[in-house]
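Narrative of accomplishments. A recurring question from our advisory board has been how the design workflow behaves on a single, concrete structure rather than in aggregate. To address it, we present the structure tokens for one chain from the evaluation set, followed by the sequence designed for it. No filtering or post-editing was applied between the two.
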């Protein structure tokens, strides 16, 4: 694959382990260890037994690191994971742009492993606990669960 940067008349946006997505995200190549075919927008964290492996972020996880970019990638195969910039995130709730996006905790009735929830910005004492579950801020609103463009940042 080519190098990242200006290669003459056009930008090359992909290398073997790094790419810029159409949505404006930075993705890295990891190994799908979710136990099933990948689902676009799933929130993932590092998996403990495979180098470069990712698994779905669990309920209450303080360690999300990225968002699955493609659906249908078999368990054990390479999958693109968006770690910065814009990503389409899978939410188990309706989403209002500009709110707070995070992995669910045990008190969230709509919480689903590997999916995000959106809520107003938390206030103390929950702000510091939820800070480590944060994945970013939705940049668009959706009226029901599904994919919503989100500006990512992980703590």
């Amino acid at each position: 694959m080519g190098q990242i940067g200006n290669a003459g008349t056009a930008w090359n946006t992909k290398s073997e382990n790094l790419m810029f997505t159409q949505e404006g995200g930075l993705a890295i190549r990891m190994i799908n260890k979710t136990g099933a075919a990948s689902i676009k927008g799933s929130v993932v964290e590092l998996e403990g037994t495979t180098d470069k492996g990712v698994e779905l972020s669990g309920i209450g996880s303080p360690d999300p690191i990225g968002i699955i970019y493609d659906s249908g990638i078999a368990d054990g195969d390479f999958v693109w994971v968006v770690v910065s910039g814009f990503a389409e995130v899978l939410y188990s709730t309706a989403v209002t742009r500009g709110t707070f996006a995070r992995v669910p905790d045990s008190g969230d009735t709509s919480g689903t492993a590997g999916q995000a929830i959106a809520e107003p910005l938390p206030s103390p004492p929950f702000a510091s606990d939820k800070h480590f579950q944060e994945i970013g801020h939705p940049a668009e609103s959706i009226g029901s669960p599904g994919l919503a463009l989100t500006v990512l940042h992980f703590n």
